[in-house]
């Protein structure tokens, strides 16, 4: 299933993408106001049955996309997780542990919504990533049981304001500018992707391919990341784990071309879909509202 959170007729809803339409599951599943509620209550199978014979309630082209999980409790990101990533390439060896940091939901825009190039930073970069959506809670999860905790997958542009990585010793400011990244367009359930390592990810900037590679090149696998993160944090339904970005970000160029007003970034992961976001300078937001 493709699970989508969206707004239509003035209301926030969730549902299942069916062809060019959306079956409104929020109108059919009592007691679950959001997709996070569905996951919390372990009702994905029930949702599937409810929408199996339902007709589309909305045309996909008429809805406003929201973040796939509108209020995730945690968004955790694994950095330096591909051999082509600039910091890994400089080290010439695999790190001993993944670099894990947190992001706020407010630092992301939904599919088709604008990513904001901030006034306070000049070096907005793109990073295409596969995102794991947690479906079952757990702590101290064994690596060989980790995939049982996965509900599905989505796409991320883990946008980073690079010049802010030099303003202090932590990643948090550079990674959390308001609406600096993209997330979506939907969640594809895990039953449709039995082996995520076989997926391929492509990032396009204004139609030009800038990142292209297989998920199998990860240094730390999805089961390892789940085991590692669950040692220090309770994973809960709807939590998001971004799994890192391959080479090709702007920072790796000798003369980086940072994202600016008018650019369009697309993150495509085969088997999931394409996340598309235009870039708008912060000072131009009010004039384009």
Q: Name the helix and strand elements from N-terminus to C-terminus, one letter apiece.
A: EEEHHEEEHEEEEEEEHEEEHEEE
Q: Which percent band covers the strand fraction? A: 25-35%
**Distance between the ends:** 33 Å
CATH domain class name of the largest domain: Alpha Beta
CATH topology of the largest domain: Fumarylacetoacetate hydrolase, domain 2
Structural Rg: 18 Å
Q: In one word, what is the shape?
A: globular
In short:
With 289 residues, the chain is mainly beta. The chain folds into two domains: 2-65, no CATH class; 75-288, Fumarylacetoacetase-like, C-terminal domain (Fumarylacetoacetate hydrolase, domain 2, Alpha-Beta Complex), CATH 3.90.850.10. It has five helices and 19 strands.
Task: Describe the fold and architecture.
The chain is mainly beta and 289 residues long. The chain has two domains: 2-65, no CATH class; 75-288, Fumarylacetoacetate hydrolase, domain 2, CATH 3.90.850. The protein has helices at residues 35-40, 44-52, 86-91, 172-175, 222-232; strands at residues 2-8, 11-18, 21-24, 58-59, 64-65, 75-79, 99-103, 108-110, 115-117, 124-125, 128-134, 150-157, 160-161, 181-189, 200-205, 208-214, 240-242, 264-269, 273-281. Strands 1, 2, 3, 4, 5, 6, 7, 8, 11, 12, 14 and 17 form a twelve-stranded mixed β-sheet that branches. It has a five-stranded mixed β-sheet with strand order 9-19-18-15-16, with no helix packed on it. The chain has a two-stranded antiparallel sheet with strand order 10-13. Strand 2 and strand 3 (21-24) form a beta hairpin. The longest helix is centred in the last third of the chain and has 11 residues, at 222-232. The mean pLDDT is 93.
């Amino acid at each position: 299933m493709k699970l989508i959170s969206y707004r239509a007729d003035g209301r926030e809803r969730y549902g299942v993408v069916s062809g060019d339409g959306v079956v409104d599951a929020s109108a059919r599943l009592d007691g679950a106001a959001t997709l996070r509620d569905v996951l919390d209550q372990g009702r994905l199978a029930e949702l599937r049955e409810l929408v199996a014979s339902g007709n589309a309630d909305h045309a996909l082209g008429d809805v406003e996309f929201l973040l796939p999980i509108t209020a995730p409790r945690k968004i955790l990101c694994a950095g330096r997780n591909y051999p082509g990533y600039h910091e890994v390439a400089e080290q010439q060896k695999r790190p001993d542990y993944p670099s894990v940091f947190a992001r706020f939901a407010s630092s992301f825009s939904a599919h088709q919504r604008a990513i904001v190039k901030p006034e306070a930073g000049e070096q907005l970069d793109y990073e295409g990533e596969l995102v794991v959506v947690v479906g079952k809670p757990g702590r101290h999860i064994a690596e060989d049981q980790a995939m049982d905790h996965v509900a599905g997958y989505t796409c991320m542009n883990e946008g980073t304001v690079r010049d802010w990585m030099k303003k202090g010793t932590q990643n948090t400011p550079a990674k959390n500018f308001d609406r600096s990244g993209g997330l979506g367009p939907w969640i594809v359930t895990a039953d449709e992707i039995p082996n995520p390592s076989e997926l391929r990810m492509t990032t396009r900037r204004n139609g030009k391919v800038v990142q292209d590679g297989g998920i199998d090149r990860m240094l730390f696998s999805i089961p390892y990341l789940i085991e590692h993160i669950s040692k220090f944090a309770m994973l809960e339904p709807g939590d998001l784990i971004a799994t890192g970005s391959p080479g090709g970000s702007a920072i790796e160029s000798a003369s980086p071309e940072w994202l600016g007003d008018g650019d369009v970034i697309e993150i495509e992961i085969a088997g999931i879909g394409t996340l598309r976001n235009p870039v708008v300078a912060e000072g131009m937001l009010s004039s384009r509202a």
